[in-house]
Amino acid sequence: MILITGATGKTGYEVAKNLGALGIPFKTLIRDPDKASQITELGGQPIVGSIEDDVLLNQALEGVNRTLILLPNSEQQLSLEKRFVDAAVKAQVKHVVKMSSMEALPEATRTIPRMHVESENHIKDSGLSWTMIKPNFFMQNLLGSGKTIKEQNKFFFPFANGTTAMMDVRDIGLFIAKVLSGEGHENQNYEITGPELLSFHEVAEKFSLVLGTEVNYVNVPMDAYKTTLSQFVTNQWHLDAVIDLFEDIAEGGLDYTTTTFSDLTGKSPCSLEQFIEEHLSFYRN
Ligand SMILES: NC(=O)c1ccc[n+]([C@@H]2O[C@H](COP(=O)([O-])OP(=O)(O)OC[C@H]3O[C@@H](n4cnc5c(N)ncnc54)[C@H](OP(=O)(O)O)[C@@H]3O)[C@@H](O)[C@H]2O)c1
Question: What's the mean per-residue pLDDT of the chain?
Answer without folding.
Answer: 97
